[in-house]
Amino acid sequence: MAELTDLTDLTVIADSPAAAVPAAPDFSGWTCPAPLRDHPRIVTGHGGGGALSAELVEHVFAPAFGGPLLASLADSAVVTLGGARLAFSTDSFVVRPLFFPGGGIGDLAVNGTVNDLAMSGAKAAYLSVGFILEEGVETSVVARVAQALGDAARAAGVEIATGDTKVVEAGHGDGIYLNTAGIGLVPAGVDLRPQRAAPGDVVIVSGDMGVHGVAVMSVREGLEFDVEIRSDCAALGGLVEAMLAVTPDLHVLRDPTRGGLGAALNEIAAAARVGVEIAERDVPVPPQVANACAILGLDPLYVANEGKLVAFVPREHADAVLAAMRAHPLGAGAAVIGECVTAHPGMVVARTGLGGTRVLDMPIGEQLPRIC
After folding, report:
1. Could you say which of 185, 215, 240 is where a domain stops?
2. What range(s) does the PurM-like C-terminal domain occupy (predicted)?
3. Mean pLDDT over the full length of the chain
4. Any domain includes 85
5. Are 348 and 360 in contact (CB under 8 A)?
6. Dihedral sign computed on CA atoms, order 193, 195, 200, 205
7. What is the pLDDT of residue 39?
8. For the domain that residue 170 is a member of, what is the CATH number?
């Protein structure tokens, strides 16, 4: 709020027992530094996966495109074609810097799209890739990104089937941008959608939160820590297969990328009109990430991840699914963090370590832009 810079808002009654009684404050001229939500132009926060992104989709894209498939707003669309159920997804990657501890834009592009398909239960099969190159970028850098992209595709068991290349003038890009799209088969009996979250569901995360975002930021800002923080970038298809082998009746899977765990939980709560309650102490956050977030003034629950997932699992299957996750290398740190409830539909509430509660709102924009 604006500071009080003079005494004009105080009324002094000299003969009164209370010699300086403040008048009722006039709020009409006060301003607040909270970001405005009515933007005539695009701002960075519109790409952050938070409330601004949701408003852009709701008020600009959805009315223009229409259609029930888009309305579900899942990580990938599930379509039926020739009798087969296919998951279809696309994503763009503008990470800065291009390379960071634990990965780079090439493997990030593959794993991000494979994971979007996996969140529908699909086994990814084919990818497309589009390179948008800035004039002047070194060919050796392009080759390094392409090699990493190809290696990641082979590791994930997918084939790069088609692609495109465009070049923009110097100063009109940031070296390399990538777009990938993917398709995969959805097994029979699998129906993973945010709308399926139900009271009684157990909320499970597959491991440490906030690692990718802090890894990228540490390089971008030149921060050094006692232990190097490496991105968790990984393809989650194998982990999802292990979970579905326990039961195909998982309700929701989501990879908490932009906006982190907080945004993902809010999206699911809003889509299913259920409440979500988590125990903050039960959310696995490695000490180095917690320390980095404290230094940077960030909340690790809103920092992006690129190799983790959050699952809403019917209570009767939760123990078996958790055991299967922990038996997989990418789920060794899996933990139960909360549950779905009937109270406060559409809202996410966290029990703090001090015994209180706080509301985990949908973030407005993004704490760390350009990290995916």
Report:
1. 185
2. 199-342
3. 86
4. yes
5. yes
6. positive
7. 67
8. 3.30.1330.10
How many Cα atoms sit within 13 Å of 98 on the Cβ side?
Answer: 20
In a domain, 245, yes or no: yes
Among 237, 44, 273, CA closest to 156: 237
Name the residue range of residue 315's domain: 194-359
How many residues in total does the chain contain? 372
pLDDT confidence band for 150 (50 / 70 / 90)? very high
- In angstroms and rounded to an integer, the radius of gyration of the C-alpha atoms of the chain is 23
Q: Quick one: pLDDT band at residue 311, thresholds 50, 70, 90?
A: very high
Indicate if 176 and 234 belong to the same structural domain: no
Structural domains in the chain (count): 2
The last residue of one of the domains, among 133, 159, 185, is 185
201 vs 34: CA distance, rounded Å: 34
Is the pTM above the cut of 0.90? no
Model confidence over 248-296: pLDDT tens digits?
999 999 999 988 999 999 999 999 999 999 999 999 999 999 998 988 8
106 & 212 share domain = no
* pLDDT per position as a tens digit, 67-110: 777 666 667 889 998 889 999 999 999 998 999 999 999 999 99
Residue 220's pLDDT band (cuts 50, 70, 90): confident
Query: Is 367 a residue whose pLDDT tops 70?
Result: no
